[in-house]
Task: structure prediction
Amino acid sequence: MMTRQRIGLSVALLLLAALFFFIIVSEHGLLDLRLLKTERERLVEENRHLNRENHTLSVEIDRLKHDPQYIESVARRELGMVGKDEVIVKPSAQPDRKVKK
Result:
């Protein structure tokens, strides 16, 4: 009877080990759960970043629609435009000066 109990115990332990292996490695196991959680965290962070970017763009669109001073500053900065009665002064090229110590 002792050997029969050992065989039963061995089979039970083998089945238990196989079950743990299946739980850890299977398609819906712990490793898959860990990968899904990591992917979810990455997507949540990307979503936050995109929401901040959307808000920034929304504010800029609103300013471009309603703020003449902002439109002027963008035109000057990005298009190099000048206002009425303004004169562009370009410095002449100067030779390199030696600094005295």
